[in-house]
Fold these 3 entries.
Entry 1:
Amino acid sequence: MKMNVFILAALFAGQLMYGQGYQAGDKAIDFRLKNVDGKMVSLSEYPDAKGFAVIFTCNSCPYAIAWEDRIIEIDRKYRDKGFPVIAINPNNPEVSPKDSYEDMIIRAREKGFPFPYLFDEKQEVFPVYGAARTPHVYLLVREGSDLVVKYVGAVDDNYRDASQVKEPYLANAIDALLAGREIEKTETRAIGCTIKVKN
Amino acid sequence: MCASGKIPGIFCRTGAVLLFLTVFAWPGRAQEPDIPVFDFSGIRPFLEQTDDTTYLINFWATWCTPCVEEMPAINEIARKYRDRKLSILLVSLDFPTHIETRVIPFIREHRLIPRVVVLDDPDADRWIREVSSRWSGAIPATLIYRNEKRDFYEKSFTYQELETIVKLKLDQP
């Protein structure tokens, strides 16, 4: 019975998982993580950026792969407008071998990622952001010395078919920011792969 | 007894036998599982049964490692509690193009007892919230309910954990 109580407590904790992490309006932390080119990257090194599309993604998740090309497109479209993509792999390669740093380098090269693809090696960044899955997008805006979260969620509303997208959530959010409009949807959900941590 | 729902008896044992016969028996290809593909409106009735059966709905995919790892536990629960009022549905989020190449081989390899359906509905932002306000969209995710009492878990289970909560639901007065 004691065991059961313990298990139930653990399960209850599991039930409360959603809604921890950042929501629109929260201040986000900067980080310093290793890029696939071997250099360390942090957001403070982009003085010209108005903000960032920080996207937790990985090599191994079919949903992450399904959205890869559209993430590249978003970076191409918005980098020069002040909103570059910063991709972060949060997975522990001991649990998910395809998400090793070496495999990240290969994937970035294969796809020609135009954005940094960083490794959250100590798995310290994604829990602060509250990323629950890959891909998981956090749109940040610089306000003075702060980074403020403006949108959390999916890239768009159709993982399977880019041509069938009705609402490009992330692009809409960036467009709204650029135009000085309110963001219509500040939080969306999508199916994704759990972030792989060691038990 | 199976109460009248939108799909009467879809989950109850006699219904399951009928379903087994209609869905799983493919003429000329014995034991070849036929996997129905639904959009969310096709899944919704499974989440809204109102009889005194305990329903366990597991969202999974063959590409999801933690889902695959917990599947033997779910299957064992299905086997061990087959004489209780427990109905398990495995909602696969595999791409429909992978049903023949991945889902069916997986069902065979693991000798899955529960019924498997594929959910193919890209507008996930809408239906994820309908399943549970607590679901971020990561899988595995499991909804366990009996009448109004609903529990939602965005995690993978060990056998012991799952049995604890299933028994609790089954033994609820």
Entry 2:
Amino acid sequence: MKIMEENLHEDKMDDYVRKSFEEYEASPPSDMWNRVSANLEDVPERTPLWLTFRKMGWQLLAAGVILVLSSTLVCEHLYYEAQLLELTHASQTDGVLNSHTSASMEGSSSTPDRQTPETTQIPIALHSALPVQHATSGATNKQPQFYPSQPVDQMIQQSLQQGAATENPTSGEAMVVDAVQQETAKQLNRISCENIQIPLNSLQQIAPSLPALVASPLASQPIIHPKKGQTGWYAGVETSIMCRLEKAQTVAPRPGRPVFTSEATGSPITSIYWLKVGKQWQNHWSLKSGLGYQQTNRTAIHRPTFRFGDGTHMGTGPRRNFNYDLNTSNGTAEVSLRMEQTQPGNPSDDEPVNLRIETEESTQWIRVPLLFGYRWGERRLKGFVQTGVLANVVVRNQLNIAARVSENARFKPVDGQDGYTINLTQKRFVPGYWLGAGLGYQVGQHLQIQAEACLSGDFPRNDLYRRRLPERYQTGVNLGLCYYF
Amino acid sequence: MTQPNIQACLKGDRLAQKQFFELFKGKMFALCLRYANSREDAEDILQDGFVKVFRDLGQYAGAGNFEGWVRKIFVNTALQHLHRQKRSPLITDLDGQDFPDETDPYMAEEPPAKNMIRILQQLPVGFRTIFNLHVLEGYSHPEIAEIMGISVGTSKSQLLRAKAHFRKLLEGSLTA
């Protein structure tokens, strides 16, 4: 009963409290809106992810196209690798040397007349990665068959004669192989056969002049090696989609001149467009250079704070001038701001003058890389790493003040062009570095598509007064297309 | 109540934002005063709360009571503010302590809400927070437990103590 009474009492009190606060409104200070408004300037716009991607426009489209193309090619590559594996397996199952009687070949309706069924067939491995289109000689023999347009022995003899003419037996052997390969390509147009059979007796006839064939039965399988990988000179176009990162530095002020550091607020995404040339040697090493163009737009905010007494008088008026150094991404800017009182009277020298200043910095870069690379992989898909230095040259740079807001209602920035001056001093040449690793995919004999994860940055830099500037990095993806001559 | 122009506020229209501010400033400042330790703290909460509201205005789905949505942001801001201050633990054990009876002799002549704000500000932070959340915002004990990171039982026991202290102070102020 007592508990019930207490609860009832408490419920009454709760109702009383709620009703008391129901319509109650308190009065905040009169400058509250100014405080809120000043803070609203700082609120970064939350750009939805889809809008960020939309803004990237054609860059994203290009990246998408390259990605789809690369994926298709990789899938195609994997598919034909599986095909080759299957053919190899079939070849091993059936034996290296196959004896085919005329009876065993009768079931094959697709066997051309020029095939000599009585002869022993020797498979010739063609490690070509070209698309597969092979003829099978029936269910009893799954190995792909090679049917030359002229008798193979005649073809071989021709090749040997040419080799003898050069007095170079090994040259003759190589020419046999070349001739077979060329004829194969001519006949089948698109070759991917792991094993191609030619009459053994044809090779036996020439065996004495071909040491490689005499040495062992296995040597009687002349291997036609794949064409060497892409080597020599190449040129390409590349696009790097990068995310810029900065690390601000604390720097010491010059005497009588405070220094403030700006912090970037805008989108960090940027692109670099490259034209590159390079040379590949020994199938592994490469040296690459070229030209890159990049435009960066940097929106940043800094908050200079002074005492009113820090300002210098400007004539007899109420205006005062405040000078300071601004430590920006590209260099140090000398800023001079003019402030004026909003109310009459003489403020004390200790009165704070706090500002919030938004700057916009636009820079155009030419970047010249010198990159050493190493790649590996025997087939079309190759991995690579590359590293090197960048010579970064500032072609054009602009630094403007986009907004000035006083956080003390008693002062305001002077409007118009007279309100400030800003003078950016910076070095035109900035050395940097590049680190990257990725994958390249060989398309045909001349083209290669590559995708690379990369990190680039500037070496530590000082301004003209030997003060450390903010550290800059860029990380992202580099997509490119190379043509090998 | 006049409806605020949310679309204009979202576009950054300062006039619309100021109208929005004028519309809610009184009620929200009263809310901030209830949670804060002092008027200065309440001003800071109010300022942060409005900045958050303008920043997150795009997230208001249009469903439900708009004032309730704004109020929720201010409550969260106040709780974060109290948590940041860490002047005293949110959960208070006042067993064996004499609660101060520092009532203003003129308090009873003031509007009841203003009087109650003074009383609330005399309560320890934990009591005040739970009292506000349960009695004035209508949060259940499981919700309070989740918000404050305490058990439901603790929430209930702290509320009982908070009410007891509040009643004691209120009665003292009314009889003064």
Entry 3:
Amino acid sequence: MSELDPVIHAQARLRVVVTLATLADGDRITFPRLQELLAMTPGNLSVHLRKLEDAGYVEIDKTHRGRTPTTLVRLSRRGRRAFEEYTENIRALLDPPAPRETR
Amino acid sequence: MTTDGDTAPLDAADAMRLIREQRASTARRLEPDPRVHYWPWGFAWLIGFGIYFLRFSPDGRTLVAMPAWLPLTLLFVLLAAAAAVFGVGSARAYRHVAGESARRGSWYGASWGLGFLSLSLILGRVTDSLPHDLAGLLWSALSVALTGALHMAGGAIWLDRTLFRLGVWLTAVNIVGVLAGPGWHALVVSVAGGGGMLVAGALARQRHG
């Protein structure tokens, strides 16, 4: 049985990762919109994003749109893969893959 | 949910449910009701081409008396209103998302705009020298042809079966209408074309959940 990725396996971060994974590959979302989709406080979201960034799962770009500074967030390739693996592991836990061996 | 979730216990079933719910709610909020994409156009066609048919009916007749300028003006106002609803709806959903989807959407929007600009410039040059019924047929048939092609292209871009099938349907409806001739074309496009868009919107809505 594979271990569940501890970076993803926490309620708040799992919600962040799922939301980012729902975006099309190559899309980035602004911090305030992400916050709105998740209904999280800015501080709370920042903490989780930093942990995800440290793990290399999330890429955060600080740019400018016109004159206003904007923070754009996206799931990295690595993050997307990690989430896919995590989902597979969860599925395997819920529905053990080798039913013949149980008898 | 705003408390720190690091320590919250999470078993596999909870995690699976959370993934499903969060994905569904994000998708719903990023892509609002798909009827916004179809119904404004559907109603514009149904009403606009319907009234055009009543004024410029087959064999040069007039089923309902009204000024000659009214049907086309009304059609263009309805189409402009549909474009506004559609544009505001998509821009609202996609606000604060940057990247490939946004670029895809804006290039697709530009192809509509430029396509219809070039079409109307070309038609404006030639239709004065045509009899009224043929000029009307040319305008509407070419507009529907371009619309059908762009719907098919949109289906190809987003791999959206509903959009692609609607494009095929509009193309077929257009051909039938052109073969039937001036007057009939407006009726066919109104009922089958506009109606087809309403049906496509209802189907997309069902799939969206």
